[in-house]
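Dissemination and training. As part of the outreach component of the grant, students in the summer workshop were shown how a complex can be specified as a set of sequence lines and then modelled as a single object. The example used during the hands-on session is reproduced here so that future cohorts can follow it. Participants entered these lines:
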Amino acid sequence: MKKSAEDFTRSHEPIAWSLFGAGGMVVAFITPVLILISTLLVPLGLADSALLSYANVLNLLNTGWGALAIFIVITLQLFHAAHRIYHGLHDLHLKGNATLMLLVFYGGASVLSLVTGVLLLTLFSINL
Amino acid sequence: MKNESKPGNYRKPYTSKQPRWWWTKNPFFLRYMIREGTSVFVLIYSLLLILGLYQLKQGEAGWQQWLSLLNHPAVIAFNLLALAAALYHAATWFKLAPKIMVVRLGDWKLPEPLMVIGQWVGMILTSAILLTLTLMAGA
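and obtained this result:
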């Protein structure tokens, strides 16, 4: 018999909620200023375009802690959003197969986190 | 059947019909939905950053493509909305924190408004430090 979400005796909720909560902290404390720095200051002319130059961004990643910080922020943002959208769809009465929904949202956040980690690791090894 | 061991399966609870747009009728629920909706902006912004990392990996030309994407008016508009969404999330998050976690020192309880203000101060300080550091690095 095919297993459904109800057949799993252990809930995904503790892990999902911890990541959601940590993500909520990051989105509240870091994301506003990160949106400013990464996508708004230069296009709005509030900072010199050299800020986001290829060399500058690679240098930040090459510090190691810069790459780690970006990984943590992106990952937690993803899990935070996945958790809220997963439950939000339920609020909007948009129902799908329970296992599939879990796979799409938490699985999707996991896969994208993996992609982010691999990208950062390969970028980290690029030396200028 | 193993499911018969679950008493829950014998229940046939009455579930009242809730219209899909229930949350538009009441400002409290509307604010709740807007708060939850901020996560859509967080998701798209995260994807934009991951795309940036991918473009960075393609070399200098790829990175320039991502930078010119940022200059597109629609992308600027999205990022402004995403900034507003993140700030709205922050406001709701800071307001909720004292309800989730009560800080006590002996008999003294940290007043809720103080905790909310403290978080705003922390957030603004963090933002100011990060802004100063990046602007110094970019100069």
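The longest strand of chain B covers residues 104-105. Students were then asked to discuss how this feature might be tested experimentally.
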